[in-house]
Specification:
The chain has 249 residues and is α/β, with parallel strands linked by helices. It has two domains: 2-45 and 185-246, Rossmann fold (3-Layer(aba) Sandwich), CATH 3.40.50; 77-181, 3-Layer(aba) Sandwich (Rossmann fold), CATH 3.40.50.1000. It contains nine helices and 16 strands. It has a five-stranded parallel beta sheet with strand order 6-5-2-14-15. The chain has a five-stranded parallel beta sheet with strand order 8-7-9-10-13, with helices on both faces. Helix 2 links the parallel strand 5 and strand 6. The protein starts with a strand and ends with a strand. GO terms for molecular function: phosphatase activity. This is Haloacid dehalogenase. One of its GO terms (cellular component) is cytoplasm.
Length: 249
C-alpha cells in the first residue's frame, strides 16, 4: 500500500512516541508540521495537560500546534463530564492544570459526597489517595478514567507510568470495578478530531506508535493507520520525507 500524506484532508497524529518523547523532539516531527501542519490534529491520551498548557510546552520545544487543534484525553474527559452532568461534584485525582480545567468547565471539585471520581496521571498518587479513591467508588461514586495506558514513552528510551498503572492499583482493591475510559482506543477522541478537521474517516489518516490504542482505535473508526516504530516506518521522518511510501499498516 502506498501512503501519500498530501492525499488526506486530515492527518491525525499521536504525540508521545511519534512527535515527542518527554522534552525531546523526535525525528520527522518538525518536517511533518512544516509540510502538513495546516491539516494536522494532535490526538493524544495525554492526561496531564490541557490543550493550552501543552501548546505552550510544545512551543518551547519549537513545535507549533494550536490549542484548538489538539484533542487530549484528560481535558476531553472533563469536557464530556461537564456537558453530560453540569455542576457535578467530582473528586479529581489529576494535575493542577486539569483540576483548573474542570472548575472552569463548571464542575465542582470536592473531597466527599461526590458524584464522580476522575483519575488521570496523578504524579502525586499515594497510598492515601488510593485509599480515598477506593472508598469513594465503593460507596457509590462513578469512576471516570482519562485512559487505560500503563505507560507512555519517555525521553532517551525511558518509561513514564501512566493512568492505567494507577487504575491497576484501584482494580486490585476492587475486583468488580466498573469505570469509563475516554482515551484511545475509545472512539471519542477520534470523533472529536474528525469534527475539528471537517473530515470523514476515509479522508483522514492516523499516525501512531501504539497498536493497542492508536491502531485499534483507528481500525474501529475505519481510519487508515500508519504505524510508527513498526516495520514500515521507524520514525515519522520515514513517513514524511519519502514519496511514495510502501508498507502502511
Amino acid at each position: 500500500m502506498t501512503i501519500r500524506l498530501s492525499s488526506y484532508k486530515a492527518i491525525l497524529c499521536d504525540l508521545d512516541g511519534c512527535l515527542i518523547a518527554g522534552e525531546v523532539v523526535l525525528p520527522g516531527a518538525r518536517e511533518l508540521l512544516a509540510g502538513y501542519g495546516d491539516r494536522l490534529i494532535a490526538v493524544s491520551n495525554n492526561s496531564t495537560d490541557t490543550p493550552t498548557t501543552l501548546a505552550l510546552r510544545l512551543a518551547n520545544l519549537g513545535l507549533t500546534i494550536p490549542a484548538d487543534r489538539m484533542v487530549l484525553a484528560g481535558a476531553t474527559a472533563m469536557d464530556i463530564l461537564a456537558k453530560d452532568f453540569p455542576g457535578a461534584r467530582v473528586a479529581a485525582f489529576a494535575s493542577p492544570a486539569l483540576r483548573a480545567h474542570a472548575e472552569a468547565s463548571g464542575l465542582v471539585l470536592a473531597d466527599e459526597d461526590v458524584d464522580f471520581v476522575f483519575l488521570a496521571r496523578d504524579i502525586c498518587f499515594s497510598y492515601e489517595r488510593l485509599t480515598r479513591i477506593v472508598n469513594l467508588v465503593r460507596t457509590g461514586a462513578a469512576l471516570l478514567v482519562a485512559n487505560v495506558d500503563a505507560t507512555h514513552p519517555g525521553a532517551h528510551g525511558g518509561i513514564v507510568p501512566e493512568t492505567g498503572a494507577l487504575l491497576a492499583a484501584v482494580a486490585t482493591c476492587l475486583p468488580k470495578l466498573e469505570y469509563r475510559s475516554i482515551g484511545k482506543p475509545d472512539e471519542a477522541l477520534f470523533q472529536i478530531a474528525l469534527k475539528i478537521a471537517g473530515a470523514k474517516a476515509g479522508e483522514a489518516i492516523f499516525i501512531g506508535d501504539n497498536l493497542d490504542t492508536d491502531g485499534k482505535g483507528a481500525r474501529r473508526m475505519n481510519i487508515p493507520f500508519a504505524h510508527i516504530g513498526g516495520t514500515a516506518f521507524a520514525t515519522v521522518r520515514e513517513l514524511v520525507i519519502t514519496r511514495p511510501l510502501e508498507g502502511a499498516q
